[in-house]
Design brief:
By secondary structure, the chain is of the alpha+beta class. It has one domain: Outer membrane efflux proteins (OEP). It has 14 helices and 4 strands. A 4-stranded antiparallel β-sheet has the order 1-2-3-4. α8 packs antiparallel against α12. The longest helix is centred in the C-terminal third of the chain and has 70 residues, at 332-401.
């Protein structure tokens, strides 16, 4: 019940020689290019022990220094488990797509029939004839699908790139805000302690003491919120970087975000930088090309054919050889509907390319407007509000030294000055969030559009009469 060695050998050689592959390095071709264009090192997939050891060593070196924005990006995109899973998923998806462009499967069938004292053995070797004929078309379709999947992987990585940049700004700024809320709490505690001693000495009314208690209670609540916000923002960044508990415990956080640039980027420079190749448009174009290719090859799903070679051997020693071709043709109505559906999908994909270009230019203009507004507000706090509060504080100190103002007026002004500094930190944070969002918009990468959240400084408290 065995076939000739030449028949099986030829079939096996044909099957093995037709295997197509999607290597890991080719799976990251577009991802490497786009991530490097964004200013980060190309991601590496840990597919063997050597690569894993190299990534772990690079991770240890990065954790030994300060957690700068570049270090956070290296940790997140270089070796975090989430990114490694994303890369592996992309590789698996591309391998599955490449598998659909291989040579058709070879079928082997054995049949034994007996009756009337005779036994007939039938051996069949079959191959999908339609799949064989359409192999070039299927390979072209697979190439188009691979192009879509590779730019989509690049889009996911750049979305993470933008998220890490923005989360780093939030985490560092939350630490700054926590420090200044601690200063506000110290001022409130000092005022409450002084008010208590004056009340015991009979020089302070109960109403005046309760005002200072109210200030202290509010400062304590703000401090609790700031402490929780700092923990929340930092833990969010820790998750993006994929750090263990021990690694997160030993992080060396920066004291503040970078200073503001002297001059903001001009709209003409931003538009010029955004006029080149964009990721969002590249994704839409790849999807349109894939849909158009399926539309052109719609007929390939209408007809299916299979070629079979048979050999029958009877117990009497007689044998017969022959072939068989099986055809399967879709119903006319189903073929028309299939063609219409593919044409509609290609038409929709083409319109999405046009819409992607419109969205791209509009998003860049919107993000640049937010960037300029954030820069203006941050500059206003830095150059006007904070210096003015400092001047007022100096004048209040002179008045206090000259016995022209009370200590509680001095404390109230200190609270207002600290609030101005908090507003400046929030404005600086909003600027760097807007800057990261603008950079993502220039490349066409997904990112969150930050809002203007900077708070105006608190008005000076009218406690001068204490």
């Amino acid at each position: 019940m065995t076939m000739k060695n030449t028949l099986f050998g030829s079939a096996l050689a044909l099957l093995l020689s037709a295997c197509a592959t999607a290597p890991a390095d080719k799976a990251l071709v577009d991802a490497d290019r786009w991530v490097q264009q964004a200013g980060s090192p190309a991601p590496r997939m840990a597919i063997d022990d050597r690569t894993r050891a190299q990534l772990a060593d690079a991770r240890r070196r990065t954790l030994q220094g300060d957690l700068t924005e570049a270090a956070a990006l290296d940790l997140a995109l270089g070796s975090s488990p989430a990114v490694q899973a994303l890369l592996a998923d992309g590789w698996a998806m591309q391998s599955a797509t490449a598998q659909g462009a291989t040579w058709p499967r070879i079928g082997l069938a054995f049949e034994r029939m007996s009756g009337g004292g005779d036994v007939v053995l039938t051996r069949t070797l079959s191959v999908g004839l339609a799949e064989l004929v359409t192999l070039p078309l299927r390979r072209a379709e697979a190439d188009r699908q691979l192009a879509v999947q590779r730019v989509q992987l690049a889009r996911d990585l750049l979305a993470l790139h933008a998220a890490v940049r923005q989360q780093w700004v939030r985490a560092v700024s939350a630490g700054q805000l926590l420090d200044y809320h601690a200063q506000l709490l110290e001022v409130a505690e000092a005022g409450d302690d002084l008010a208590l001693r004056l009340q015991k000495a009979g020089n302070f009314s109960a109403l005046q003491r309760m005002r200072e208690q109210a200030f202290l209670a509010d400062a304590q609540a703000q401090m609790a919120r700031a402490r929780l916000a700092a923990t929340t923002e930092r833990e969010a960044l820790v998750r993006l970087m994929g750090l263990t508990a021990d690694e997160a415990e030993n992080l060396r956080w920066p004291k503040h975000v970078p200073d503001l640039p002297k001059t903001p980027r001009e709209q003409s420079d931003v538009v010029r930088a955004a006029s080149g190749e964009r990721l969002d448009v590249a994704v839409a174009q790849a999807q349109w090309q894939a849909a158009s290719g399926r539309d052109r090859n719609a007929w390939s799903g209408v007809l299916d054919a299979e070629l079979a070679l048979k050999k029958e051997t009877a117990t009497g020693g007689s044998s017969a050889r022959g072939g068989e071709i099986a055809l399967s043709i879709a119903a006319p109505g189903a073929a028309v509907l299939q063609r219409q559906g593919l044409s509609a999908a290609a038409l929709a994909a083409g319109h999405r390319v046009a819409q992607a270009r419109i969205d791209a230019t509009s998003t860049v203009r919107e993000r640049h407007a937010a960037y300029l507004t954030a820069h203006g507000l941050a500059t206003h706090f830095r150059d006007s509000v904070v210096p003015l509060r400092k001047t007022i504080a100096d004048e209040m100190l002179l008045r206090y030294n000259g016995m022209l103002s009370s200590v509680f007026a001095l404390l109230a002004d200190a609270r207002a000055s600290a609030s101005a500094v908090i507003g400046a930190i929030e404005a600086q944070r909003d600027f760097w969030l807007a800057s990261a969002a603008l950079d993502a918009a220039i490349l066409g990468a997904p990112s969150a559009a930050p809002g203007m959240q900077a708070a105006m400084p608190a008005a000076n408290d009218n406690n001068g009469g204490h």
